[in-house]
TrEMBL record:
One of its GO terms (cellular component) is cytosol. The lineage of its organism: Bacteria, Pseudomonadati, Thermodesulfobacteriota, Desulfarculia, Desulfarculales. Residues 45-123 form a coiled coil. Belongs to the Skp family. InterPro entries: Chaperone_Skp (IPR005632), Skp_dom_sf (IPR024930). The keyword Transport does not apply. Residues 1-29 form the signal peptide. Keywords: Coiled coil, Signal. One of its GO terms (biological process) is protein stabilization. This is OmpH family outer membrane protein. One of its GO terms (molecular function) is unfolded protein binding.
Length: 176
């Protein structure tokens, strides 16, 4: 009789422990998780495409400017190499200084151009990213998501969890 009560108590305790351990698993099984490729979302929305086109125009303009400066430096170098033996020391020194000045100007302009492109990228995409976060929060709340994460940080996710295209569509609808 005592063994029977002890056996029933053990079984009941085992059932309670099993239910306690399985409850979080059942809760996680019902949790909805979304994954977004943020880079794709920012680049593929309409505003992102327009910003990229503007950045390409700006980069092409800067590349053309750098190409002209590079050609001027190359021409000075070639001229200096060809005429160095024929020039008086003062004239040769003046040409070397002119070459060094142009080469420094080219390097400075190249560094400035890289900085300009980085700043233009930041200025173009930061507002999109900020608005995109609002869209994601609204989609998460409306869609009942427990978690939405960046695709690059997830080690695995089923393709059905990818909501990037939904985020892009919602962004384009709100910010055409």
């Amino acid at each position: 009789m005592l063994q029977s009560k002890h056996g029933k108590l053990t079984i009941l305790l085992g059932l309670l422990l099993t239910a306690f351990w399985l409850a979080p698993v059942a809760a996680h099984a019902q949790s909805k998780i979304g994954v977004i490729n943020m880079e794709q979302a920012v680049n593929d929305c309409k505003q992102g495409k327009r910003s990229q086109a503007e950045l390409r125009r700006k980069a092409a303009k800067l590349e053309e400017e750098l190409k002209q400066l590079n050609e001027e430096v190359a021409k000075l170098r070639k001229d200096l190499e060809n005429t160095a033996m024929l020039l008086k020391p003062e004239a040769k020194l003046a040409k070397e200084r002119e070459f060094e000045r142009k080469a420094r100007r080219l390097n400075d302009r190249r560094r400035d151009a890289q900085q300009e492109v980085r700043e233009a990228q930041r200025d173009a995409f930061a507002p999109i990213l900020r608005r995109m976060q609002g869209i994601i929060k609204a989609l998460g709340a409306k869609g009942g998501f427990a978690l939405i994460t960046e695709a690059r940080t997830a080690l695995y996710f089923p393709q059905s969890s990818d909501i990037t295209s939904e985020v892009i569509a919602a962004y384009d609808k709100k910010y055409p």
